[in-house]
Amino acid sequence: MSALAPPASAWCERGLNLSALVLPPLLALVPHGAAPLAGFAGICAAGLIAANPPYDFPALRLPAAILAALLLWGALSAAWSIDLGRSLVMAARLAGLFAAALALAAAASRVAEPRRLTLFLFAGTAIGIAMAGYDLASAGGLSRYVSIRVFAAPRLNQIAVWLALFVLPASALLLCRGRRLLALVAAAAMTTTVYALDGTTAKIALSLSLPVAVLVYLRRRAVCRIAAALAMLAILTAPLTLPQLARLPSVFTLVDAFKDSAGHRLMIWSFTGHRIAERPWAGWGLDSARAIPGGKVEIRPGQDWLPLHPHDAALQLWVELGGPGAALFAFVIGLLWLRLGAAPWPRLYVAAAGGSLFAATAVASSAWGIWQEWWLGTLGLALFVILVMARAASATPPR
Questions:
Q1: Per-residue pLDDT at 193
Q2: How far apart, in whole angstroms, are the C-alpha atoms of residue 389 and residue 118?
Q3: What is the rounded distance in angstroms from the CA atom of residue 102 to the CA atom of residue 358?
Q4: What is the pLDDT of residue 399?
Q5: Which of 131, 203, 268, 393 is a good FRET partner for 89, with 20 to 30 A between their CA atoms?
Q6: CA-CA distance, 397 to 399, in Å (whole number)?
Q7: CA 362 – CA 313 distance, rounded (Å)
Q8: Strand locations in the chain, DSSP E?
Q9: What is the C-alpha separation between 52 and 43, in angstroms, rounded?
Q10: Sign of the alpha-carbon torsion through 165, 168, 169, 174
Q11: What is the Cα–Cα distance from 108 to 383, expressed in whole angstroms?
Q12: What single string gives the DSSP state of each residue in 86-125?
């Protein structure tokens, strides 16, 4: 059996390299493919772990326990869910996605060639940028071959968000390796692409991540602890704060004038707040937001009170899983910040990872549904590559 371990390990690592290469082009062309890709990467990660004992991962025990509790609570919510079948199906899907994410996090320390994986990731990101640029310039010259939908600029929002998450860790890695010019070129290419594409959320997330990264660089432990406390507080108090924004005339007028969909989002949050108040402890059931009574009532032409989800992760946890689900979600986010503050990585890379973590939470607080498989798969793969890149950044750069 031991003689078979090295070849098995090598093949699994090649699968992870392939996943890193394919992820950005998938997000540019067929973003929903990120979900099966995360499953494939999770299997490769599990194989890599199996081929490289020991199997003890003390750092993952607490996050695994929190995710297991969240999954169990979500499955139990099917008992009172207004959409029983959907809740059960989503619980099964989340079990696979959570398992894949944990396997990827565990496998990050088992990757034998972290620098090689980062090369595949950089190559894939460059390909994704080229594909997004061509698709935008040609009004769907590539996407027309994989989709029957008419091309629209928001189709590229997923690759824009990936670049917003990736630009700071990628640039920090290159700087830690002594590649200053290459870091500047990579940062300029990714940042320019984000602001050239249509995604407003990606632009805002990237802009806000920069000052956060600076603060983490200056006072890492203190800022990460403060960020953990503020993130948890924001999640736990979301039903008391976000729904009130639509009821402030000056705020609503300003936001609605900035972008029609932004004003609609405030109205969605207001409606969601009312529904949370009706079931604050148990919620309406896992992934039941799209079936909540009154959600499909039209308030403006083409805009309903709650089309699919609240467009905010905290509110979605509250409305579907009540206070217990929101508390478990808050623990996950808080734990990520605390672990980042204690990570034994280069100071510059920790700051960049902090900016990326803030960008991810900003996107989760204003964009897609938190249970969308492609989004969870992308986040799991992003965590994996950031952990692997941290190992590459920690190595002594060549002279």
A1: 96
A2: 6
A3: 20
A4: 39
A5: 268
A6: 7
A7: 10
A8: 298-300, 303-304
A9: 14
A10: positive
A11: 9
A12: HHHHHHHHHHHHHHHHHHHHHHTTT-S-HHHHHHHHHHHH
- At 117, list the tokens: 């994986």
Of the CA atoms within 13 Å of residue 48, those in its CB half-sphere come to 27
Give CA–CA dist 372/353, Å, rounded. Answer: 23
Q: Which amino acid is at 384?
A: F
Is the per-residue pLDDT at 80 higher than 50? yes
CB of 7 within 8 A of CB of 347?
Answer: no
Which residues face 298 on adjacent strands? 304
Do 379 and 103 contact (CB within 8 A), yes or no?
A: no
Where residue 395 falls among pLDDT bands split at 50, 70, 90? low
Contact 125, 320 (CB under 8 A): no
Mean pLDDT, rounded, for 323-352: 96
Q: What is the pLDDT of residue 396?
A: 55
* Residue 254: partners with Cβ closer than 8 Å, 6 or more residues away: none
Task: Characterize 352-389 residue by residue with b for buried, 16 or more Cβ atoms within 10 angstroms of its Cβ, and e for exposed.
Answer: bbbbbbbbbbbbbbbbbbbbbbbbbbbbbbbbbbbbbb
Q: Which two tokens stand for residue 336?
A: 């990520």
User: Each residue of 250-306: pLDDT tens digit?
Assistant: 888 898 888 878 889 999 999 999 999 999 999 999 999 999 999 899 888 888 998
What is d(CA 291, CA 195) in angstroms, rounded to the nearest whole number? 35
pTM of the complete model: 0.93
* 3 state SS of 267: helix
